[in-house]
Amino acid sequence: MDKFLITGGIPLHGTIRISGAKNSALPCMAAAILTEDEIVLENIPQVKDIDTERRLLASMGAEIDLSEPHLTRIRCATLTDPVARYEIVKTMRASSLVLGPLVARTGLARVAMPGGCAIGGRPIDLHLKGLEKMGATITQAHGYIEARAERLKGAHLVFDKITVTGTEDLLMAAVLAEGETLMENAAREPEVADLVALLVRMGAKIEGAGTSTIRVEGVESLHGARHRIIPDRIEAGTFLVAGAITGGDLIVADCAPAHLGAVIARLEEAGAKVEILSADPVHGEIRIRGNGSLRATDISTEEYPGFPTDMQAQYMALLTQAEGASQVQENIFENRFMHVQELVRMGANIRVEGRTATVHGAARLSAASVMCSDLRASASLVLGALVASGQSVLDRVYHMDRGYERIEEKLRGVGAKIERVRTAPDPAEESFSD
Ligand code: EPZ
Fold this sequence. Notes:
The chain is of the alpha/beta class. The protein folds into two domains: 3-19 and 231-430, UDP-n-acetylglucosamine1-carboxyvinyl-transferase, Chain; 22-228, UDP-n-acetylglucosamine1-carboxyvinyl-transferase, Chain (Alpha-beta prism). The chain is 29% helix and 26% strand. It has 14 helices and 25 strands. The strands form six sheets. Strands 18, 19, 20, 21 and 22 form a five-stranded mixed sheet that branches. Strands 23-24-1-25 form a four-stranded mixed sheet. Helix 5 (125-133) packs parallel to helix 6 and helix 8 (233-245) runs parallel beside helix 12. The longest helix is centred in the N-terminal third of the chain and has 13 residues, at 48-60. It is globular and about 60 Å long. The protein starts with a strand and ends in a 13-residue tail after the last strand. The model has no long low-confidence stretch (mean pLDDT 95). The structure holds ligand EPZ. Ligand EPZ is lined by residues 23, 26, 94, 120-127, 161, 163-166, 309-310, 332-333, 375-376, 403, 434.
């Protein structure tokens, strides 16, 4: 299992370029199941979860061409085996995204139950409830879910809880269903709107993307399309924090500033200087300067456009350097404080009670050997190590490789002292994922 060696205390200067959004690329790749034609996706991030999804689609019979960097061509002309096997699903729970499109395209889907992960139970009951409402018969046995339907029918779906992949899964079920589907309390994340943009290019009839009410008029079939994946707002947010926590002067480029409203607001509240140099949704640029002193700030994670749960761990690292006491409330997942004990090992002063963490700063962090536990907790430890005095050793960085493309190269490019120590791959790397 690879490790990172990071020497802290260096303010970051320069420009970091953002990759495509992993959490948009995953549903958009699953959307290729909905047509026999070729789907071409640009700006695909080169991260492990994308390779896992390619393996998943190929195992079902999809032809996948990955000869060009950051571009993937997928053709699901014949789906010989509409099954998402446990060996793949256990390493990436987003595999449940193939459930809706498989039932819509073939009338049958068998998907291994994803099981829990580091940050929570991660049920998919809302995905299944929606498919049943659309006429699918759902059975569960031997750790697999089976969904069958001659042809799904449009339905009025009201989500009990806002679910991002639940909204995406059921959107992909609805586009080929008979009649109209009205979704209420749907997720408003930019990645949902990006999936809708692709589906509409494929010939789907959808209104309301980006709002909590989405209306879908089912069509008989969908055709091929070419689509560019939006920038990764969480990768961008992570590097903005890197600029602030190291007291540097960083430009985050090829991002979509409009997707980072809540994150930018909290960074300014903490005392960082943020300027939007270009609001372009594809090649946007944000400059962040940390002026050394940071102020305690409270955050509470909410669904989009609120402060994203995927930025909670990274922002908490920043709060360890802020003068005063900050409250961090995690409202989305039940166990998303795995980074706390590792930050405490670096010298942070954090106390957790239920879903609230209280961070007392500013703490002088010192380098330590720490363990990555999930994707965003790992990012939090990188940020802590960038400001800790001495050289930290981060173990199990395969968690980072799932969602951050070449992070050590990108950070080195702006002055960070970080190197990857390659070790023999370990079966544990195929462990449960978040
Ligand atoms: C997506 O996960 C993202 N993953 C997550 O990013 C992100 O943290 C999460 O949305 C919230 O924004 C992808 O898009 C691939 P949810 P998802 O369904 O869809 C409960 C990362 O770091 N729930 O919106 O699985 C659930 O337990 C990853 O990139 C049900 O109860 O999250 C949670 O408490 C981590 N029943 C809440 O809803 C369901 O059927 C929100 O989950 C579905 C969800």
